[in-house]
Amino acid sequence: MNIYAELDELNKEISSVSTKTTFNGNSLLTAQNSLTFAGSNGLLTAVVGASAAPASTISAVTLSPNVVPAAYTFTTVGTQLTLTTTGNSQSISIANAFSVGNNTYNFNNLGISLTITASAADSGANQGAAFAGDVLTISGSVASMKFQSGAAITDEFLFTGLDTRTLNGTKAEYLAVSTKTGNVGAVTASGTQAAWRLAFDEASTAVDNAIIQANTDRAVLGSQMNRLGFISTALMSQSTNTSASRSAIIDTDFAAETASLTKGQIMQQAATAMLAQANQMPNVILSLLK
Questions:
Q1: Angle between helical axes of 2-20 and 172-182 (0-180°, round to 10)
Q2: Is residue 290 in some structural domain?
Q3: Could you give the percent of the chain with pLDDT greater than 90?
């Protein structure tokens, strides 16, 4: 019981750190999207199977960094499921034998992926028909930042933020920790050894999954930071070369100009000396005639 209480407090602190970590006003570890699933079904609790067929639920909605906040409408033709928004749409084929467990509807062109958890097998037509007319509304902004990665303004690198919250987030791998460690009332009430063993197994599995996901996210963040480092080095090199080129064209070459000035002065002094000597020549001749 005490271990669960400690895990619960650690979960809250992880979410707190994720929420407070910002750079220049941008959240780095907290998703900034807000989702609304309008229509006959409700987000995360929607029954998408036909009424006479086994029930399935939308267990997760995953957004990519390039998703566009907008209203997305579902339409179906047989086992063809189409998600449409203004100026863009994508169709996918639902497997005719919808399998038990997690099934993924990946609209990768739109940056939206739905995870459907089925309790029993169902036909693709039943699953698709249940979506008809539903609207997925995405509002807010994605936790990402754009950096210029080249000489042109259009050369951009999208730095993708992470979502490491364990409370009220969208990452199933992290939320599972909160789910498994936050609800221990039933275990405490029963107090049986088997119940505690099962609860510990579930919680430890959730923690392991969260650690694996954290390592994956750290690798992603590290690779993005390395890329930003290389971009910074390349841009600094471009800036140095551009400044050198501009200097060669516009700036004065003081060494060459100093040499030219010295040469001119020497020639002027030599000419003056020669004229002075030439002016003395008549006096020399006259002195010989005396």
A1: 150
A2: yes
A3: 1
